[in-house]
Amino acid sequence: MDFSSDHLQQRVHLVQTSDGSQTLSVDGGVEHYHSTNGAIAEALHVYINAGLAPFLGREVNVFEVGFGTGLNAMLTYQFAVCNGTKVNYTSIERYPLPLELTAKLTYHEQVGLDREKYFNALHSAPWSYKVELDSYFSLQKIEGNLVEYSPSSGIDVVFFDAFAPDLQPQLWALSIFEKIYKAMNEGGVLVTYSSKGFVKNNLRESGFNVKRLPGPKGKRHMILAQK
Question: How many other CB atoms sit within 10 Å of the CB of residue 142?
Fold first, then answer.
């Protein structure tokens, strides 16, 4: 996908999903930032419940591919504070959304969170610097291309939320999963909404033990890959 941030606002518009939450539609529906069957429901199912929740009660280093709307980060922030679990959250995003667009998102309302603390703070945080937003949650946003970036070691959980493999196959390549695998702690997990055959094969070839789990509404399966 040739996705130029210079023309982002002309190519992206808000769409309501079936659980009442919003997603962003790109180029009239060629791609969406979250599932149209429920943005919040998908994020909770794939990333929070399958990926993060098993690490409850210990300090966790999360690496996210695709900061996007900030939904996954917001739900992780909520999880960390509500469960007293320290989360160090790092996210890479090649095309940051403009604040004028994120100001229209209302995820916080649907899960009963304070907008300024749990959502605005995520988007207004500076890029490239680690910031402590709460004693239980730190955030470092990285503006860059995953193909050229090597994550720091010590990762426990990977939220792999890039655009679809058919649109951006270079982000789902064996070389990408190999460098992520090397940066992960033993026992760490990678979760993603995609269950494409070549994605599973590339994960296995990079060293992961790959499991296919029931997917969120609208998808039969998702992937959990463990080191």
Answer: 18
